[in-house]
Amino acid sequence: MPTVLELYEKLKPRLGEEEARSLLEFIESTVEQRAVTKADLQQTAASLREEMRQLEGALREQIRQVDASLREEIQKVRADLIKWSFAFWVGNVVVLSGIMFALLRGAR
User: Fold this and answer.
1) How much is the pLDDT for 87?
2) How far is the C-alpha of 32 from the C-alpha of 63, rounded, in Å?
3) How many domains does the chain have?
4) Is the pLDDT at 1 greater than 70, yes or no?
5) In whole angstroms, what is the distance from residue 45 CA to residue 39 CA?
6) Do the Cβ atoms of 11 and 24 come closer than 8 Å?
7) Rounded to an integer, what distance in angstroms lies between the CA atom of residue 88 and that of residue 84?
8) CA–CA separation, 53 and 106 (whole Å)
9) Using CA atoms, how far apart are residues 108 and 105, in angstroms rounded to an integer?
10) Residue 5 has pLDDT above 80, yes or no
11) Where is pLDDT greater, at 33 or 45?
12) How many degrees, rounded to 5, is the angle at CA 34 between CA 29 and CA 37?
């Protein structure tokens, strides 16, 4: 790859001294801007990755909290179902016992 001086020497006869110098200065400033832009992009990407990690942690914690509350609610519903099921069967046994006693008394 040619050096800046070699490039200047090749451009000087074709463009003239002032124009060759201006062109090389422009190219150098463009290269510097690209390097700065690349560094800025890398820094921005690193900060975005860190922010995403933090958000992921916060989301995981919220999911744990929702999961715990859902499990608690499910346990309450399960206890209610068992309670009502027990009440239903006890009621049925009482009613059927009453019918059986009534039938037995009527059969005498």
Assistant:
1) 94
2) 46
3) 1
4) no
5) 10
6) yes
7) 6
8) 79
9) 6
10) no
11) 45
12) 125
Average pLDDT on 32-56 reads: 90
Tokens encoding 69: 């509350």
Residue 23, amino acid: L
In the block, tokens 């900060």 appear at 47
As a whole number, mean pLDDT of residues 48-54 equals 96
Domain extent at residue 20: 4-107
Length of the chain: 108
CB-CB contact of 23 with 15 (8 Å): yes
User: What contacts 2, CB < 8 A, 6 or more positions away?
Assistant: 10
Q: How far apart, in whole angstroms, are the C-alpha atoms of residue 66 and residue 64?
A: 6
User: Residues with Cβ < 8 Å from 14, sequence gap 6 or more?
Assistant: 20
- The string over 27-53, giving b where at least 16 C-beta atoms fall within 10 Å of a residue's C-beta and e elsewhere, is eeeeeeeeeeeeeeeeeeeeeeeeeee
Query: Distance of CA 37 to CAs 44, 60, 84, Å?
Result: 10, 34, 69
